[in-house]
Amino acid sequence: MVPPSLAAAQMAEESGWGTSRFADLGNAFFGQWSWSKGIRPLAQRSGKGDYRIAVFDKPVGSVAAYVRNLNTSAAYADFRRERERLRKSGSKITGADLVHTLINYSERREAYIRSLKAIMRVNLLAGVDDAYLADGKHVVLVPVGDGAE
């Protein structure tokens, strides 16, 4: 489980709110690197090798790879440990509670975490952590300020 608020904030940050060349050409919303096939950045960073940004046939492929990455990579062991701790304590699992564990997701480290927190706060994403998908049921999300209580 990845809190929707955290996934949404990372997707916005990593893809320039879905406007990046990688999102446009490769359905790549989470900035995941590849050393085989993918889209080469226009200005590769020296000393990092011949990396690419992974491409996906459909947007859902990018989301699935992102979730798999968080759930398997050693870089995100703190994420999994904290999520397990919250689950065992019976606490709600939120993006706000887990964002600090993704310090290794970006070379920007603390600045990246601050940016994700700001995206979650300014865009009132905490509420989406209560959203869920279910077969046959419609869920309506009403924007804040539309008079809905």
How would you characterize this protein structure?
The protein has 149 residues and is mainly alpha-helical. The chain has a single domain (4-130), classed as Orthogonal Bundle (Lysozyme), CATH 1.10.530. Helix content is 42%, strand content 3%. It has six helices and two strands. It has a two-stranded antiparallel ribbon with strand order 1-2. Helix 1 (4-15) packs across helix 6 (110-122). The chain starts with a helix and ends in a 27-residue tail after the last helix.
Number of helical elements: 6
And the CATH topology? Lysozyme
Beta-strand percent range: under 5%
- The coarse overall form would be globular
The run of helices and strands is HHEEHHHH
Widest sheet: strand order? 1-2
In whole angstroms, the N-to-C terminal distance is 28 Å
Total beta strands: 2
Highest-level CATH class: Mainly Alpha
**How much helix is in the residues?**
40-55%
Mean pLDDT: 89
Largest sheet, in brief, is: 2 strands, antiparallel
What count of domains describes the coordinates?
1
Task: Outline the fold blueprint.
Elements: H1 4-15, H2 21-26, E1 33-34, E2 52-53, H3 59-72, H4 77-89, H5 95-98, H6 110-122
Helix pairs in contact: 1-6
